[in-house]
What does this fold into?
Amino acid sequence: MSSNSLYAVLLRSPWWASMLVVLVIVLASGALLPAQYRPFGMLAALPFLGIGLYRAWQQGQGPNSKRVAQALERAGAMPWREFSALLQRAYEHQGYAVTPLPGSAADFKLTFSGRTILVSAKRWKAAAHGVEPLRELLATGRSQDVDICVYISLGEVSAQAQSFAKEHGVTLVSGQTLAGLILNHV
It folds into this structure.
């Protein structure tokens, strides 16, 4: 599916946007079609109704913005030892075996089902994140032959760092994704 199709846009939008499309289709069918064709015109709203219900379910399952903001605020107030313990609990809860890596560009080595992941989080409080810590993490990852490198931050990651991460396959974890990881452990 094209990322700019109406279905794709509605799958990224709030649930009520799809319901608005449903309402427009039903009202237009009722007003513009002859009586014997109105039910068929209204059936055209079914895919949009499905998308709206799916998005409502998705949005109901995720944490609300207030809880996300509170979790990120609490994480920002933590000292490194507390935050690293929080991350370790969160990853262990997901089933990873977590090994701390002191004195390295990476802070944790995660293993699960034969896959190895390096996580760098020590600079999580920095106001801005550039390319250099990502380069260090990537170099460490290549030297240890890992599958995935993950960089955790509360602050803004520069556009240059984002493009570097995308180009080299480094996963950036911040904002709502980070809150989802730590929310039940804060």
